[in-house]
Fold this protein.
Amino acid sequence: MRKAMRTAAGILAALVLTLVAREAGTQQAPPLDAPAGIYVVRPGDNLWSLSGQFLHNPFLWPRIWERNKFVINANRIYPGDPLLIPGYVPPPPEGVALPKAPVAVPAVPAPAPVGVPEPVAAAPAAPEAVVGAPVEPEPAPTIIAPPPAVLRVVTRTQYVCLGYIHEGGPLGVGNILRPLRDSLIIMPHDTVFLTLRPGTSVQVGQVFQVIRQQDAPVLHPRTGRTLGRLIRGRGLLQVTEIQDRSVRAKVIYGCEDMAAGDTLVPYEETEIPALGAALPTALSAGGMIVHAVMSRVSSGELHVVYLDLGRQAGIVPGDVFAVHRETGFAADRRGGGTIRLTPTLIGDLVVIRVTDRTATARVLRSDRDLHVGDRIRLAAKMP
């Protein structure tokens, strides 16, 4: 009996795959080298459905993933994320109509007269053509192309999840007291109760960012001094009800699992700089990568490092740093002694957010894995 059920399940799965493949085969997927357009993710989208919609075959979803290396988990894309999709042509912005080609309308012959025809006035004679007169050409239609999409250093949802080094002082205005349901883990759409510090103003609809502080301090790799403690974003929640000291809120976005005791900070919209907005500069500012959450940090994904330069050094979001690694020394056989070799350029970083003495930066490019202790030097500055 069980063997028969397994056989039937296998046949059913094969039929489903055959139908999907037959449906996908009616339209040809764009070639591998097709130019990609920017599609902004909408609620409910996933790589499987987008591949079926634009590549005409849901099984080709890895092609989209390969073009968007910042997507760490293929099962997690978020509304607002810009995805490069092969063969996708973005529609023109709303309110802008592209000119259409003229359509020739065939002439319809007039019906034959019935009964006694009424006298018809003679048609006026056509004006005589003037030989040699200039003919005004028809003006060419103006094609209004959609404006290029602005690529930000990170998306707004990614910005919520990024961390920074907290250098001390008060942190947050309250905490998550407990979830409504009996669970140790708080997920998106869950309802939670909040506890706020005395004197903290709150109103229905207000949004808080949920953060969590790392226990171990971040130490400078060269001096050993404490720089602060790492803060990681966990998500966003919105106040839904206030009764006396009881405040309810709903989780509206989650980066990682939340729990009772996580800290609340008021959420503020932040202007995220565009990629490529920084200009080459002769200003001298050098420092070091002082912390990285992952042991291997490279480009291609949303890999983040932390720097020992911040607001006090004039650094702002959008500034670009070149990463150098010490090459070492070589023996000078002719002159004797050793020669210090020039450092090797191994990557580029773009600053996302700053504190007084530190900065959070995203890896734009790397020829090899970046490490804590690699040197950085300012390469481009925001105007």
In short: The radius of gyration is 31 Å. The chain has a mean pLDDT of 80. The first strand starts at residue 36 and ends at 40.
